Amino acid sequence: MNPNQDVIDPLENRAEGQESGAGNPGENKDGEPKRAARPTRHAMIMRGIVTPIFGLLAVAAVALGILNATMWKPSSIINASATISGTQYVVTDPGVLPLLDRNATLNVKPSSSSMQVCVALGTSKDVAGWVASESSYQRITGLASWTSLATQQGKATGAASEASDDNAVAFKDSDMWSQVKCGKGEVTLTSTKTADSTVAIVDLGKDASSAEISMRWVRSQVPDFAMPFYLSGGLLAVVAVLCASVFAMPPHKRRKRMVEGKAVIHTDLSFAERVEQGLVGTKLPESVPARKRRRHAAHRRGAKNEPELESEQIETPVIVDPAARNMVADQQAQQSEQSEQSAQPEHDVFEAAESGAETGTQLGGADGAHSAGHSYGHSGRAGSFDDQATSVITPDELQAYFSRLAREVQDGQSTGPDDADMVDNVGTGSSDTHVDQQEEGK
Amino acid sequence: MSKRMHGLMRHGWVKLGATAAAALALVLPLAACEGQLPTAEAPAASQPSPDLTEAQEKKIRTKILETLDEADAAKSADGYKAVMAGPQLEIRASQVTIAQKSGSMNKYATIPKDVSQVVIPTDDGWPRSVFTITTTTEDQQSQRLLVLNQNSARENYKLVAMARLFDGVSMPKFEIPTHGSQMGTAKDTGLVATPTDALTQYADVLQNGSSSQYASTFTDDMLRQRIASLTSTVQEGIARNNGTQQQTFTAVPDQMWVMRTADGGDLVVGRIDSTWTRQAGDGRESQPASDDERILYNSDHYTSIMKVTYVNVVALYVPQSGDGAQITAVGADRQPVKVEAL
């Protein structure tokens, strides 16, 4: 039923969506206004039919679990019996005595109370040796059901010849039995800590009349049937809740959410990639998918309204620059720049942090590459410059910086985000040559 | 649209009912049962298990020795048959016959109740033999090696042989009782000699002494020395009156019990019958050579020839064949069982 519903619902929904799309071409693809008005048929079916079904099944499973834990609990005492006639010896197969528990009680009840019967325990090979000279005997092979023992005709091996009467001992006098009990009428023998190879042998006497043999175990471990029901009940309840909530949503709505989630991940990824680029240097294969995604995002964003685009524009440099910044490398770069053109001091640091889509990114890329390639080689020299470089910012320089900042902010707003990306890539791609030039300049 | 939905829902309810019924039909048989029927599985025989536990061996041995004690006290051989067989039955019957006259059992007949080692076989078939080494006796006689043998499944263990270990002899090692040892056979190979051959050759050594062709196969031992010295002592007396004496030793491989030792050798306990015929010369009478013989003869009528039948039990350690490996007799018992005047 549920699969059917699932199959039907999306179809219904899609048809409905098409209808609505045809009816109101101007309306949003998501159909959000409609859903807000009243629940879709899909949601109604999921909440009105599927959820109650699962709820009922959950209740039923829990109820069955409770029944299995109480009324229907498997009994720990197992009593199985079989009536055997026409044979003198009855032998249990190896493994039958410890079938349900290491302690087993064997009870033999002959048809007439005057009959002498014996029950003994011995190893399987001893018992097999004892009955080897018999023409036939009965085997108890296990449980036919929970109340009856399975029996089978034992075949005589005929390996041992009958012992001479002088030397032969009576059944109860044999040295081989670890336990033996004889009596007229009913005989009960309890085997404790039964070894795997221990078997029981019953001597019903030469007359070979019938007797009822029963075995009784007290199970120390009773199978637990309640727990699976509880577990499935819990699962069904969870499914019912999901049917009432998540699965009741229109599928495309759920899909949209997932897409949005991906978009968030995209920005994270591009951030990580950019950091990596900054550290490792120019790694074109890595940067290609990042650019692709960004372009796609930009394209999608382009179709939308303005404010989003603006927020993206501001975001981009904020994400990139602080992490990729290597202060030591910056100082070196600025030193070299200072030596080349004294009008451009280390203000770029702040500039990049504030906005500066074009220049900031360019320098950021260059600095990243620079730091990766050369920071170790020049660290000693950079340390000596460090104090001077950071402390010597005169009020005049600060003034000049702010004025330039204001100008560039205006310029930056006029350029699109695609341009910023392009510049970014170019800056990253050419950073090596840029650095080389700086080195030569030194 | 609402009609469609109604139809769909009605359809759904029918399906729901069918599903619920199917689910119940699946679930209900599961309820109220005892679980899956277990099947008996024969234990995997990874290692052959010993035929007896040490406790069982002790129970069997104690029962035998107590029966022996009762029969000894009653000075009657009737009780022996239930718990003894083989050479030991004949030896013990002879000893109790002597005890009837002498008043007490031979001190060599004592069997201590405590054990120092038990060797239990793992063999599935019959006969099965348990080798038991007792402690020394209260009067510091040497340890006894007992062989308890179960001839068939319908019989009980019986004491078939008892050998008094020689002083200072080093016994071979056996597997511990919880592992069990493998019984050897009369035809075990890879040894200095097969058990049957070892017994036969030892009989020849006892008969011929150092002139036996097998003398070098066996290390010197107490039994050989004592028989040789006894023979030479008797020879002195017989030689004075121009008499002769002759001893013949015959191995009885049918009454032989073999157990494998831990080092791959065999410990063989077997019976060797011997007759000692003494003929007095110069018309003299041939007299018994010992008190035991005198009591067994139980007559004052002597002739010139006296034939004494002995039952000997010997325990031989037959090592694996190798450079200079020799068979060692580790214990023996010897008892005259019949004295005749021919």
From TrEMBL, chain A:
Top-level taxon of origin: Bacteria
Residue numbers spanned by region Disordered: 1-38, 282-315, 328-347, 359-391, 405-442
Record field: compositional bias (Low complexity): 331-344, 368-383
Record's compositionally biased regions (Basic residues): 290-302
Transmembrane segments: 44-67, 225-248
Biased composition (Basic and acidic residues): 433-442
Keywords: Membrane, Transmembrane, Transmembrane helix
Protein name per the record: Asp-tRNAAsn/Glu-tRNAGln amidotransferase A subunit
Taxonomic source organism: Bifidobacterium reuteri DSM 23975
Automatic annotation (TrEMBL), chain B:
Domain (DUF8094) ranges: 50-332
Any one Pfam family match given in the protein's UniProt record, by short name: DUF8094
InterPro entries: DUF8094 (IPR058407)
Leader sequence residues: 1-31
Highest rank taxon of the organism: Bacteria
Keyword line: Signal
Protein name per its UniProtKB record: DUF8094 domain-containing protein
Species of provenance: Bifidobacterium reuteri DSM 23975
